[in-house]
Design brief:
Blueprint: H1 3-6, E1 17-19, E2 22-24, E3 31-35, E4 42-47, H2 51-65, H3 68-71, H4 74-90, H5 92-103, H6 107-125, E5 135-136, E6 142-150, E7 153-157, H7 163-176, E8 180-184, H8 191-203, E9 210-212, H9 217-226, E10 230-236, H10 239-251, E11 255-259, E12 265-268, H11 274-286, E13 298-302, H12 303-318, H13 337-354, E14 357-360, E15 364-365, E16 375-376, E17 379-382, H14 389-392, E18 399-405, H15 411-415, E19 420-421, E20 423-427, H16 431-440, E21 445-448, E22 463-464, E23 467-468, E24 481-489
Parallel strand pairs: 7-8, 7-10, 8-9, 10-11, 12-13, 12-20, 13-18, 17-18, 20-21
Antiparallel strand pairs: 1-2, 3-4, 5-6, 6-24, 11-23, 14-17, 15-16, 19-22
Helix pairs in contact: 2-9, 4-6, 4-8, 5-6, 6-7, 11-12
Length: 490
Amino acid sequence: MPKTERWSVAENLDLKMVIGGKRLEASNGARIETEDPATGRVIGSFPAATADDVGRAVENSRAALKGEWRSMTPTARGRVLARAAAILRREADRMARIETLDSGKPLREARGDMETSASYFEYYAGMADKLQGDSIPLGPDYMSFTLHEPVGVTAHVIPWNFPLTTTARGVAPALAAGCTAVVKPAALTSLTSLLMADILDEAGLPAGVYNVVSGHGSEAGAALVAHPDIAHVTFTGSVRTGQGIMKTAADHVASVTLELGGKSPVAVLADADLDAAVEGTLKAIYMNAGQVCSAGSRLVVERKVHAEMMERLVARVSAMQPGHGLDDAAIGPLVSADQVRIVADYVDDARRANSLKVLVGGRRLAPAGMEKGHFYAPTIIDDAPADARVVQEEIFGPVLTVQIIDSPEEVVAIANGTPFGLCAGIYTRDISRAMAFARDVDAGQVFINQYFAGGVPTPFGGTKLSGFGREKGLAALSSYYRVKCITTRL
């Protein structure tokens, strides 16, 4: 089979946005083409929604909030979400191939994303009828209790690195709480968020409860966040964009959940199990070619084991062969040519401005048959000073920056030495030291002797420039309901 045929799906990926259960073009007819990052080949397209289109979607979601969805019992809402999980699992292979073509990630990772997405709907399906209020004891002459009510129409501005999982992560708890959702997927990777509308429709979700307005952030995203009928905004993306969203949402007093990336440390102390530390470090930085907000992009290693860690890591990274995601390559492409330029600039600056040593990688790649793809070699930059750009700023690519410490007592200060605070990991056999690290490190999630531990039930979010609010687990639900207290004298 020719590679161009193998790297495809047997369906038309020229999609439309979804408002009120109807597939629609943008009001001005404009469309955006989407490409396979591994080849640069256009694989599909979707509408570039205007501000007017966004207004119609929000209006439709507001109407749906007062219709059939409002009268549906929490148990019935949960059944809709459970059916959506089952249908998504049925369609997982197809959806994973589309996700891989759209984002470039290896197929095994895309398949994992489909299972995670289904798990979000499954988990919150079980919570829909358990959002119970409280009884407040005011004495024998009063009865006081609380109700949990949906906040209203919610906006979900989705990043390009995990298109469907981030959609499901916010939409599933919003629907469980009885809200409606307007989704603005990233212009680079909109396909699976659009196709999710078909799955939810088949699951029995009333029209208008899940609307999708594809388009550019500067128009569709900005219009959505600024709409006065949006009650809550869930956003994952850059710090600068998140700051703008928070300011805009304040104009109509909408609440926000912001997940704004990180520069997460993976600490390896001299007493660590180095086999586990090597595996965890590789996973932490090279999953999805490093395009992960919670990536462990800084290796903080004790000097006693630094040389051995570098020897092992360089050998493993040198053997990683880039390729097409549908071939399940060890590492796939970056999402776009722009992202390659950003990553290359950071590495070139580290060489030029800081004279740092690149142990492996540090160059663009053009695998055979994918010369127009967006590949960058997995890279390790050794012994970086604390003030280097590659230490302080999020690169969002397959670049591991190494910082060396002389004793375990230094680990917390080095781990906390950036303006971000999303995740942190530590490898050590000393559980007391590990727990002290977990206590003192400024991060929303801490992993001990592993990385990317947990799952759908574990709360996720950051501190400092990594944002605020929590997604996943029970903690996510509080963004989507408000508490009403009712008190009566008997």
